[in-house]
Amino acid sequence: MDWMYIDVIVGGRFRIESRLGSGSFGDIYKGRDLKTSEPVAMKIEATTAKNPQLRYEAKLYHTFAGSYGVPNVRWFGKEGSSNVLVFDLLGPSLQDLLESCGGRFSVKTVLLLADQMINRLEWLHSRNFLHRDIKPENFVIGVGDKANVVHMIDFGLSKKFRGKELEHIPYRENKRIIGTLRYASLHAHLGIEQGRRDDLESLGYVFMYFLRGSLPWQYASPDIPTKSRNESVLKVKMSTPIETLCEGFPSEFVAYLNACRNMRFQEKPDYSSLKAILRDAFFREGYCRDFIFDWATVGRDSMEHLGKHAIKDSEECWSQTSFEEEASTRTPSSLATSSLHVASA
């Protein structure tokens, strides 16, 4: 039960304060480092869990320590009958922010986010791992001077796709689908071993979800068995032309999704080209790279559930080459403090 964890101290240093949500494996709590008084996030999983994953996820976070756009682990260990992972408390998820903005993002905001989100996947793939659960809940914004930096979280379903000698995992079929059906790639639905192309295709569906507010196949009943639900979602996904899915939005989104769907299993994606496709739309539309996202204009009352609202507006337009540099160096419109939110898979 949730209350049993409140005020518990884990690792002799971190106090659990309140529940934030649930992740792919385990529940998420807000806590505090009693030594530094800093707020932290804590993921808790029962040691009796049928498919324990937290130790594996903690190992990955340690492997990724110090990486840009990934939270740092503070502590991992066993406390009573639970495994606990303590890491940086970040801002709200992109799903939270989408809801605060009325359920849709503008084209400008999606294109700004897309550049960073592709960068996160390129980095993860360079470390020889796939994410395999790309969805809005698994991307969160930072806080403080990183309030406009998108962070990638929840690696419980991640898988290594290359070994020590950089040999690629073999092509396989009849695999159980891993990830969230709404954003799963066509190959994942069909039971084909996932590769880098599948993470990127899933990201394309996230972009269209941000723009449209919904996807044509997301209304399959959650009450039906997973296999039937998978078939239902796949049927609609396959029968919806990409041009129809992206209708009313820049044609570059069509080009992006087509490029992802046409990749071969072991092919190394051309991340630069994928980013260039979407940057073309950004420049053609005449947007200013000011990193003022849609949520910067949302009123204080509407943002209370996400945390304290601190906005610093600026009319300055930046013209540096790298989107990523601007996001990390500029003092932007931001949410100064907030809670990490991770939803179930």
Could you characterize the architecture of this molecule?
The protein is α+β, with helices and mostly antiparallel strands. It has 2 domains: 87 residues, Phosphorylase Kinase, domain 1 (2-Layer Sandwich); 182 residues, Transferase(Phosphotransferase) domain 1 (Transferase(Phosphotransferase), domain 1). It has 11 helices and 10 strands. The strands form 3 sheets. The protein has a 6-stranded antiparallel sheet, with helices on one face. Strands 7-10 form a two-stranded antiparallel ribbon. Strands 8-9 form a two-stranded antiparallel ribbon. α3 runs antiparallel to α5, α3 runs antiparallel to α9 and α5 runs antiparallel to α8. The two termini are 20 Å apart.
Tell me the quaternary state.
single chain
In DSSP terms, counting alpha (H) and pi (I) runs of 4 or more, how many helices? 11
Q: How does the overall form come out from the CA principal axes? A: globular
Helix content: 25-40%
Question: Do you know the CATH architecture of the largest domain?
Answer: Orthogonal Bundle
Features:
globular, single chain, 2 domains, Transferase(Phosphotransferase), domain 1, two-stranded antiparallel sheet, alpha+beta, Phosphorylase Kinase, domain 1, 345 residues, 6-stranded antiparallel sheet, 10 strands
